[in-house]
Amino acid sequence: MKTNLYNYILELADNCLIAGQRLGELCGHGPSLETDIACTNISLDLFGQTRSYFQYAADIKGGDASEDSIAFLRYERQYKNVLLVEQPNRDFAYTIARQYLFDVFHLLLLEKLQFSQDMILSAIAKKSIKEASYHVRFTGDWIKRLGDGTEESHAKMQEAIDGLWTYTNELFEVTEEAKILAEEGIAVNVSTLKDLYYEKVSALLTEATLTVPENKYFQKGGKSGIHTEHMGYLLADMQYMQRAYPNMKW
Amino acid sequence: MSEAQLKNTGTERSRSLEEIFEQRIANDEKIEPKDWMPEKYRKTHIRQISQHAHSEIVGMLPEGNWITRAPSLRRKVALLAKVQDEAGHGLYLYSACETLGISRDELYDQLHSGKAKYSSIFNYPTVTWADMGAIGWLVDGAAIINQVPLCNTSYGPYARAMIRVCKEESFHQRQGFEIMMSLCNGTEVQKQMAQDALNRWWWPSLMMLGPTDSESVHTEQSMKWKLKRKTNDELRQQFIDQTVPQADILGLTIPDPDLKWNEETGHYDFGEIDWEEFWQVVKGHGPCNKERMNARVGAWERGTWVRDAAMAYAEKQQDKKVNSAKAV
Lengths: 250, 328
Ligand SMILES: [Fe+2]
Ligand SMILES: [Fe+2]
Description:
The complex is a heterodimer. By secondary structure, chain A is an all-alpha fold. In chain A, 66% of the residues lie in helices and 0% in strands. Chain A has one domain (3-210, 223-244): Ferritin, core subunit, four-helix bundle (Ferritin). The longest helix of chain B has 29 residues, at 156-184. In chain B, strand 1 and strand 2 (267-269) form a beta hairpin. One fe (ii) ion is lined by residues 56, 86, 89, 165, 169 of chain B. Chain B: One of its GO terms (biological process) is phenylacetate catabolic process.
């Protein structure tokens, strides 16, 4: 089995899966019907991408691996998503901030991944770019609305950005397998996206009258499977059916 | 002209307007927002369309309850998309209702204060995954039976909204049936889960088609305005006749010992509906009435600062535009 490629696909896909799961929690509970529909759209896109990645990963793994066994039947320590995307929906500002801070990265990543030497990854990236550009526009617009809206919304948005900032640096950490695959032209070396990312984010935060956090103490661990305490509960929900009723078709 | 005479021509004039109006409906013409309409027509339509819109968005909650726990990625995506469709239905219907001169905020107020009703079926809990199948199959199924005739209702914006809604509802129903089918083709545990869901959702689905004709207050007027084309009891019979063979295909048993094909009438006979339970739920004392209202009111209240911010931001942008136009 191509272990490096398999692990790299999980690294890509788990971010989409967990970000999609978090947005899915809100369906029906958002501040307006319009935001509900839009957030569900983003969630649907992310799950769609997840499925493409996992179907590919299942092919690589072979045997009776499937998109669902990979999505639902791993242990917490085997999920490779960054800590950022598993952070809970504390309020709408947190939800938007989390998604925006991911979306900017995600689009930069996909724009590079479309040139991957791996044809399937390249195809998934090409298909996803359009979606990710819509996501970043939607969440970016909301950062501006909330940042430059009322005093209350400004304070809430600032708090969310400050709270989540500590998780941004992990996005650019290069895992062992990504490093090897990047040399082969298959993976993206995410460390190269960092400057542009902070440039873009800082510009938008400034436009939104928000302060770019100066915090330089960052958290990481997600990519090596060491998650925040929130992750176990998310998985307990997500895996519930597959764990309670093993080996069944739905 | 004396005051009495003035009054007289006033009523005569509105009577003739009303006659023309009723004639237009009888001719199957559509009534559009700018057309003259009797106040009662407007009020009745606001009531029915908003009740329908509220049902769509409250209806998102019981199924939304299973999005994070859906058993496969394919099912998760389908469920998310379905609940999103219901939000879309809510949007079209609120918009249709707004054409009658009431704002969405006022309509929400009526829902949140308990003044407006929504379909009582959504006050039942979704306790297993099979409920996602049963709701699609039975609840969306009953909704279609209720709604297809409304595609030809007299009020244009409502009729057009219903055409879009009905297309999606039949897709939901097939999807629900397919969930049931997977369960019924599955393990013993899955079959039991499916049967249990049918047991719990069958009677509420029958009740969903409304009180029995003798108790239904709005029917006659609604028939005239094509807000209704069949009575509740006729719709219920149609639903039962359509659904029983589907349960047979699934290999499930409908929880009604009196259910029997009647050769003479060409319909199924069925047992007594527990109307006491129906009225209890309608009056706010069903298993989840409080949870559903708390969820809706909670989402609305938690969203206040967000909506205020969006408004403030839009105003600031508008001011900027005006100022830069002045500068030029
Ligand atoms: Fe609907
Ligand atoms: Fe539906």
